[in-house]
Amino acid sequence: MNSYKAPLKDLSFIFNHLLDQEQLAQLPGLEDLGVDLYESILDEAGKFATNVLDPINASGDREGLKIADGVVTTPKGFKEAYAQYTQAGWNNISLELEFGGQGLPYILSTAVNEIMMSANKSFVMCSGLTIGAIEAISHAGSDELKQKYLPKLVSGEWGGTMNLTEPGAGSDVGALKTKAIDQGDGTYRIHGQKIFITFGEHDFTDNIIHLVLARLPDAPEGVRGISLFLVPKFMVNDDGSLGERNDLRCVSIEHKLGIHASPTCVMAYGDNEGAQGYLVGEKNKGLMAMFVMMNMARLTVGMEGVALTERSYQAALDYARERLQGVDAETGQSVAIIEHADVRRQLLQMKSNVEAMRALSLFIAQAQDISFRHADAEVCQHNQGLVDLLIPVFKAWATETALKTTTTGIQVHGGLGFIEETGVAQYLRDAVISVIYEGTTAIQAADLVGRKVVKDQGKNLGVLIGLMKQTLAQAEANADLADIAFELKYAIELLEQHSRAIAGQFMQSTKQALSVSVPYLMLTGLVTGAWQLAQSAVKASELLAAGDSNVNFLKGKIETARFYHKAVLPEIRGLAYTVSNTGSVITGFDNVYFGE
Amino acid sequence: MNSYKAPLKDLSFIFNHLLDQEQLAQLPGLEDLGVDLYESILDEAGKFATNVLDPINASGDREGLKIADGVVTTPKGFKEAYAQYTQAGWNNISLELEFGGQGLPYILSTAVNEIMMSANKSFVMCSGLTIGAIEAISHAGSDELKQKYLPKLVSGEWGGTMNLTEPGAGSDVGALKTKAIDQGDGTYRIHGQKIFITFGEHDFTDNIIHLVLARLPDAPEGVRGISLFLVPKFMVNDDGSLGERNDLRCVSIEHKLGIHASPTCVMAYGDNEGAQGYLVGEKNKGLMAMFVMMNMARLTVGMEGVALTERSYQAALDYARERLQGVDAETGQSVAIIEHADVRRQLLQMKSNVEAMRALSLFIAQAQDISFRHADAEVCQHNQGLVDLLIPVFKAWATETALKTTTTGIQVHGGLGFIEETGVAQYLRDAVISVIYEGTTAIQAADLVGRKVVKDQGKNLGVLIGLMKQTLAQAEANADLADIAFELKYAIELLEQHSRAIAGQFMQSTKQALSVSVPYLMLTGLVTGAWQLAQSAVKASELLAAGDSNVNFLKGKIETARFYHKAVLPEIRGLAYTVSNTGSVITGFDNVYFGE
C-alpha cells in the first residue's frame, strides 16, 4: 500500500489564492498570524499524518476493537498515537484560548482535519466528538462546569461524547426516552440506554465526559422537553482528581461495515442508583445547546468525504502509474494503466471532485471564521448566512460523492481493489457512514430546502449566487476559460430556476418538495463545486500569465476544472429535470404499489 | 433480518407479457414446455432460495472460509446445501441433455439464477464457474474429454473452474506466462501460478476440474499463443474412479471485501513434476475456446447486479414499512418511514432499477434461446446480434447500478444499515466485485463501442433502436402513457445521436472515444432500461383496460415506469453531454498534471 502524503500544494494554492488572507489577518485574534504560519502547521500536520496515523490505519481496521466487562481496547498503537496527537495539540487548534485551546482559525483546523482523517478516520473521531462536547459545554454550561471540565477536555486528557440516539429515536431525536431526576442538590440521576455512541468507551483517556440528552419528569413531549446533562464516567473531585465510578457502562460495541477502530457503543446509564449528572444550560433547552455545534460537526463529517476521496485518489494514482497492463497500440510498448483512456477518466473524476470539495470546505471555514470574529455584526450575519446555507449542501454532497470516488478507487485497482490487504476497500467502507450520521442526506436536503432556501425567501442563496456570478464574470473575461464560463453560466441559471421551482413546490406541497430535495441538494453541491473550481482556474490562469513557475500544477488546475465542468457538472441536467418533474409521481405512489 | 422472497409476481408478468412465449414454444426442444411449467419451476426455485440458501447467507459471510494445508473449508451448511442444490438440479437447468443437463431455456436459468443469487451470491458461484467449464469443454473438447468429464460436471458431482488471471496478467490475458509442455502421450505438464480462481479449492465435491490457460514453448506471443488445458485435481481412471492427486494446490485464499463464502484462490500448478493436463480444442486457440462462454458468463454477472438490488430492495422495503420515526405533520400520528418523502424516492429508485434490469436480462436470455435454437439462420443471426450488443451494456449497467442501489438500501436503514448484523451492508460488499470480474466496466464499454457499435456500422444497434421505436409507438398511442412516451422518445434520440457521435470519434481517435465510452455505455443502459419499463407500462395498461384483476400490481408497474422515466432516465442528459464534450480533455490531460 502506498503512503499518504498531505495535499500541501493544493492547500497552499487555496490558502494563498482562494482565501481572503487580507481580511482574515484583520480579524481579532488572527492579526499576528498569516499564511506562512498556516502552511508550516499544515506541513507538520502532514508529517504527523504520514508518520504516525497512516501506518496504523489499515492495521487498526484489521485488528478492530475488543470489549470485555465493559472495557474497550483500541487497536495496537492507537493509544500511544493519541498521546502524541494531543501532546502536539492537533486536538484543539481552533478551541478558545481561555481553556487551553490554540484559538487558531477554522480554516486551519478544517485543513488539518482533512489531513488527519485521510490518514486515519477512525482515530480522529475521538477528538472530533470531544470537540463537540467542549463546544456544547462552552456555549451552554455554567462557569463551574466549564472550570471543572473544559481544561482537561481541551487538553485531550479526557475524552468527550455526544449521546443523542436511542433505539426508538434516531433522526427523530424528540422521541427519546432517557429520564433525568432532579436530586435537589444540583445533581440529577440519569436512567436510560443510548446507542451509536462514538468513542463512548475507550482506553485513550482516564476519564470520559458524556453529554447526554434526557427528559425531566415534567418535561413537555417532543423536542421541547429535552435537557442536556454532563455525565462523567468517573466523578471529578473538587481538586480535579478522579472520584468514584459513575453508574454508567458500555454494554456492547457494534460490528460495523467500516471505521473498525472507532468504538460505536451501546451505553447504559443508571443500571443501579442512576448515573449522576449535571444540567448543561437551561431545562428543556438541551437540544438547542447540543445543536450549537451542529454546523461545525457537519462540516467535519463533510471533510470525511474530502479526506477519503483524497486518500483513495492517492492510492489509485500511485497504482495507475505503477501497474503495467496492455501495450500501446502505436508503440507496442507495455504501458502503465494511467495511459488507459478510462483510467484517466476515473482519476480525473476523483481529482476534480476532491479539489472542488476541498476548496468549498475552506470557503465555508473562512466564512465561519469571519462570522465568529468580525467586529461588524452585519458582516458576521452575512457570513453566517453563507455558512448556514452551505453546511447541509457540503455535508451531503461531499459524503455522497465520496461513495462514488472511493468506489472508483477500488475499480482502478481491478481485482486487487476487492482484496482487503490492498487497503482501498477500507476507504469505501469507512465512507459509507458519513452519509448517515450527523443527519442523513435526506435530513440535510430538508434542512436546505425548508430552513435555508425557503425560510429567508432565498436571501442567502441570492448572496451565494452573487458570488458565483462574480467568478463567472472573471471567467468570461478570460478567453482561455470561455468553455468553463459557458458551463458555469448554464449551471448558475439552472440553480436559480430550480431553487425558485422547489421553493414554489414547498409552499404548495411540502412532501412533494421534499421528495425531490436530495436531487436538488446534489444539484446545488455540483454547481457550488463548479464555482470553486472555476475560481481556481481563474486564479491559476492569472498566475500563469504573471509568470508563476508552478506551471504544471497551475495548468493541471485549469484542466481539472475543465474536466469537472464537462464530465462531472453535467449531471445537474438530469437532476434539474428530476426536481421539476417527479414530486407528484413520488408522493402519489400508493404504498401498495411497492408490493403486497 | 427479513427473509428473502422470490419476485414471482414480476417474473410472472415478464414471462407472460413481455416474453414471446408463442415464438419460444416453437423452438426445437421447447415445444412441450410453456409458461405454466416455467412458473412452477420458478416457484420451486423461490422456495429453495428462501428455505435453504437465504438462511446461510449472512452466517456464511460472517464465518467465511478456512484454509489449512491447501484444504479449504466452506462455512457451516454450505456443503449440505450444495448437495441439495445439485440433487434438485438447480445447477444444470440449461445445460445440454446429452450429458445430463435439463435442456431448458436460458430464460428459465437466468431467472432462477437471479433468485438463487439474491439469496446467496457466494454459494451460487461454484456452479456458475462449473457451468463455464462445462461450456468450454462442450464446445472445444474432444469426445473423449467430454465423455470422461462432462457427466459428473453436469450432475454437479465435480466442480469446475476457469484459470485465466496471473499476477502480471489481469485484463490483459495475452500477457500470461503459465507453461505447458507436451509429454508426447496426449498429456501435457503444466507449470505456473494463477490468481483470483473462484472456487479453485473447496469441499463441495470430490474432484475439481480446472480449465487452465497456458502457453506451449513454441507458441506465438500474446493472445494468439494461448492454449486451454483441462487439469483435474484428482486424475480420473478409465472406469471413472478417482486416481492419484495431481500436482496442483491451492496456495492461499484471499481476504476480500465481499463474497466471503466464495473461495478466491491462488493456485499453484506444477510445484514438482508438473500438473498433468489435456489440451482442450486446438493449440494456441485457447482463448477462443474459453471466450465461448463469455456472453453467458457476463449475463450471469449482470444478474448479480439484479439479484443484489432485489435483495437489498426487499430488506429496505420491509424496514421502511416497520420502522416508525417522526409524526405526520397533518395527523400528528407516528409514521413508518415509508411515508417519508425521500425514503419513497429511495425505494422507487431501487424498485424501478431492478425491474428494468430484470426485464432486460430476460429479453437477452430470450434472444439467446432463439439464437441457439431457431431453425432459420437469419433469425439466429439477428438475435445473436442483439445478444452480442446488449451483453456488455447489461453487464456493466446492471452491476454499476447495483452499487448505487445497495448503497441506497443501507441508507434507508439509517445507522442500522452500517451495522453488519443488519445484513444490508453485505449486499453492497458482495456487489462491488461484479463491476470488475468477467471484464471491468471499462472493458465492457470498449467492447460495446469498438466491437459492437463501430464494427458492424451500427447494424445491430439499429435493430435495437427499431425495437425501441415499436414500443415508443405503442406508448404514444396510449394517452395515459403520454409522458412516458415523451421521455422515451427523447431518450432514443439521444442514444441515436450519441451513438453516431462516439462512432465518429472512434474513427478519428480511438483513445478519445474510449475515454467517454463508459458514460456512453451507461447512457445506453439507462435508455434500454427505459424501453423495457415502457414496454411493461404498455402491457400493464392493456391488461388493466381488459379488466385484469391484478390492479395494484399493474398500476404499480405503470407508476414505476413513470418514476424511472422522470427520476432515473434523465441522468442520460448529463452523460450525453459528457460523451460529446470531454474526450479531448481527458486524453489531452498531461500525466504530470495529476501530481508530481
Q: Quickly give the CATH architecture of the largest domain in chain A.
A: Up-down Bundle
- Determine the fraction of residues in helical runs of chain A and give it as a percent range: 55-70%
**Outline type of chain A:** globular
Number of helices of chain A: 21
Largest interface, C-beta closer than 8 angstroms, per-chain residues = A-B, 97 and 96 residues
How many domains of chain A? 3
Largest sheet composition of chain A = 8 strands, mixed
Domain Acyl-CoA oxidase/dehydrogenase middle (chains A, B): 162-267
Enzyme class (chains A, B): oxidoreductase
GO molecular function, one term (chains A, B): oxidoreductase activity, acting on the CH-CH group of donors
Domain Acyl-CoA dehydrogenase/oxidase N-terminal (chains A, B): 39-157
